[in-house]
Amino acid sequence: WGYTSNSTSFASSPFAPVSDVTLYANWQGNTVTITFNYTGGSEGIKETTYTVGEPGVKLPGSSKDHYDLQGWTADPGNPRALVDDPFSPMTSTNLFAVWKGEIYTVSLVSPFAEPTVELKYEYGSKGLWLPTLEMPGWAFLGWSPDKIADQGVDQPFVPTKSETLWSVWKNLPALSSVYFDGDSPVLRADTKAKLKKLATKVLKVAQRPTMIVDGWVKETTDKSYDQQLSLARAINTANYLRKLGINALVNTTPKGID
């Protein structure tokens, strides 16, 4: 007890006044502890003390690759609940650093796609699935940070900086015709069905799902299924190239597969 509310001297106890006097209760804040968890960032001070009622504690800074420090929270399950800075706790508190991934811009440039496409990516989120392009006469191989490349980046793509990616293409061979054995437009129904089933199951053209075979092969007793599948592959290739706008003809002239 003091003689004022902010006294620097206090009445002794037991107290024996010689005249009327008013005493004031004087309070001093508790000393509490603040600990810091940097959650992967560069570490500085790990613990400090604070006396309740005094000016708040200035919270420390930190750095972390590809992230920006947003502040500190006492609830790691709720990173939006940031505490004030300076921090004035009433009880001992554990604080956790809250980070937000840096925002990067990925620019996609292709001679066959105008204008340039820009994608935004926040580091730490799921990677980017980059678009697939199509162009008659060309096979699209992906996107690369190099203008000249023979393959694209892995997908999903996780950028670590803002950058430009260039489309990667491979010129398809200029096939003008596809030949196969056969001089009759008649194919036994059961053989054609088997051929379609096998081709649909095992054939792939330019890493695309196989198309159903549509054409004719010469039905002879000496042709194995391997040979028939080879013929089916020729027919499939012609169908695929025609889809790309390339003049690919299935010719019934008995010249064999060219």
Write a concise keyword list for the protein shown above.
single chain; 258 residues; alpha/beta; four-stranded mixed sheet; 13% helix; rod-shaped
Describe this structure in words.
- The protein is built from two helices and ten strands; from the N terminus they run βββββββββααβ.
- The protein has helices spanning 189-202, 225-243; strands spanning 31-37, 47-51, 67-73, 93-101, 103-110, 113-122, 138-144, 163-171, 177-179, 249-251.
- Helices cover 13% and strands 26% of the residues.
- The N and C termini lie far apart (109 Å).
- It is of the alpha/beta class and 258 residues long.
- The strands form three sheets. Strands 2-1-4-3 form a four-stranded mixed beta sheet, with no helix packed on it. A four-stranded mixed beta sheet has the order 6-5-8-7, with no helix packed on it. A two-stranded parallel sheet has the order 9-10.
Provide a brief overview of the structure.
Helices cover 13% and strands 26% of the residues.
User: Roughly how much helix do the residues carry, as a percent range?
Assistant: 10-25%
Question: What structural class is derived from the secondary structure elements?
Answer: alpha/beta
The major beta sheet can be summarized as:
4 strands, mixed
The value of Rg in angstroms is: 38 Å
Number of strands: 10
**Proportion of residues in extended strands:** 25-35%
Poorly predicted residue ranges = 174-189, 198-228, 248-258
Widest sheet: strand ordering: 2-1-4-3
Order of helices and strands: EEEEEEEEEHHE
Shape: rod-shaped
Straight-line distance between termini: 109 Å
Helix count from the secondary structure assignment = 2
